[in-house]
Amino acid sequence: MAGVLLDIADARVELDRPPNAGALLVLTHGAGGGVDTADLLAIRDAAVAAGIAIARVLQPYRVAGRRTPPAPTPQDAAWLPVVAALRRRRGFARVPLVVGGRSNGARVACRTATASGAAAVVALAFPLHPPGRPEKSRLAELDAAGCPTLVVQGDRDPFGMPPAGADREVLVVPGADHSLARGLATTAAAVVAFVTSPVVRARV
């Protein structure tokens, strides 16, 4: 099934929706990137094949042509109406909502998971700290998700390696850097398994 392009709350959303989707996965991009990175596309293909609806969200600042995201508070405020609008679409209200993204997008998803009503979070290449600056930890943002979280991190990522936790699984991709361009099949399979897992389905 071909995806549809939607304009929602100043964001641009590419929604791929298989028949009778059993979950809704909403993913967004890194700070200066878009929604057509290799990892997001691999996850899209695997998700649709597994009966998961997936929305890839180009955030408003990127739609406006800016490469640098706004501060966390306005960025989060722009993200939440997009997720809420997708949730209101027919057939999505009663399936698990999983939010996530890569890099800066993962930070947004973690910070807003509770407010968005997400059942779980997928954090791709979570930037635990700026390269070479481990003292500038963003672990508090990852912890703020407050729900089951899957982190997918390359073992060569200069932004650090997040720790596993009671509600957090960390999949380490050998040979991958911050782009997660290696191990695409592994990443996509892990995300699908997580979204369809009993621990996520139980949180509808």
CATH architecture: 3-Layer(aba) Sandwich
The CATH superfamily is Alpha/Beta hydrolase fold, catalytic domain
Shape: globular
Strand segment count: 8
Which topology does CATH recognise? Rossmann fold
Helix and strand element order: EEEHEHHEHEHEEHH
Task: Give the terminus-to-terminus CA distance.
Answer: 25 Å
Task: Bin the strand percentage.
Answer: 15-25%
Structural class: alpha/beta
Range of helix content: 25-40%
Rounded radius of gyration (Å): 15 Å
Largest sheet: 8 strands, mixed
Q: Average the pLDDT over all residues and give the rounded result.
A: 96
Domain KANL3/Tex30 alpha/beta hydrolase-like: 23-181
Organism: Jatrophihabitans endophyticus
Protein name: KANL3/Tex30 alpha/beta hydrolase-like domain-containing protein
